[in-house]
Each structure stands twice: as C-alpha cells, then as structure tokens.
C-alpha cells in the first residue's frame, strides 16, 4: 500500500502550460484530462481547460493541478517546497523554475547552514528550495 501527500495547484486557464513546464523540469509522466472528457461537464467554453493533471516525476515528485472553472473562486496556492541533499538536482530545478520567475530570495547560504531560496514561477506558484548543508555547518 502507498500513501502520499502532494500539492494540488490551482490555475486560471494556464494549467496545461504550467504542468507541461513542470514536466520538462521534473521528468516522469504527465497525465492530463480536460473538462470536455468528463460526461458531467457541459460548458463548451471551458471544455479544453484541464480538469485534472497529475505529474509523476523523477525523484518521487508528484504534482497535481487543474484549471478552476470561471464560475468558481480561485484560491491562492501555498508554497511548494523542494528539499534534500542532492545539490546538483535541486540547483537544476531552481534554475529551471527561475525561467520567467520573480525571485523572492536568491538561492544562497542561509544562517542555518543550508542553501535556501524562494521564487514565484511564471505561473504564479511560489516555490522554496532548501539544499541541506554539511552537518554542523552554520551552527554555533
């Protein structure tokens, strides 16, 4: 049996582009379903929007997302956090997510000894990246 906790991102008309962007970064498999493919949905104006997307990426990354219909209020996304000790992978993800992003905190050495940065990507999703430092580093 498997249990997983993963983010489910909200978009307004940009889920396909966002999820394809994340797929190019995280690899793996991307499954997309449109509203038109669902029999209970009958608004042709929103038929091509993404009702459900699931990215099962490399390194156990799982992201889900959808276009919120125009008739519904969209809620803000919380930050998505990427962390670990594989500096090459995490820096690569940071660099890719930085394309068109607003950098809130550059990816730099943090007071706690790790390397940390924050950005909001070009789709409006906030990300935090934390690369574990050497144990004992940054501690007094």
From TrEMBL:
Domain Glyoxalase/fosfomycin resistance/dioxygenase: 7-129
Superkingdom assignment: Bacteria
InterPro entries referenced in this protein's UniProt entry, alphabetically: Glyas_Bleomycin-R_OHBP_Dase, Glyas_Fos-R_dOase_dom, PhnB-like
Pfam families tied to this protein: Glyoxalase (PF00903)
Protein name: PhnB protein
């Amino acid at each position: 049996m498997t249990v997983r906790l993963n983010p489910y991102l909200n978009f307004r008309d940009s889920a396909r582009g966002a999820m394809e962007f994340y797929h190019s970064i995280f690899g793996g498999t991307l499954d997309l379903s449109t509203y038109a493919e669902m029999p209970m949905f009958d608004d042709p104006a929103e038929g091509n929007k993404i009702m459900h997307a699931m990215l099962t990426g490399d390194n156990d990354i799982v992201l889900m997302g959808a276009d919120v219909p125009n008739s519904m209020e969209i809620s803000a996304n919380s930050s998505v956090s990427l962390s670990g000790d594989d500096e090459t992978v995490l820096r690569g993800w940071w660099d890719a997510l930085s394309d068109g992003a607003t950098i809130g905190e550059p990816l730099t050495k943090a007071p706690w000894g790790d390397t940390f940065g924050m950005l909001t990507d070009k789709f409006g999703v906030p990300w935090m990246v934390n690369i574990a430092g050497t144990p004992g580093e940054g501690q007094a």
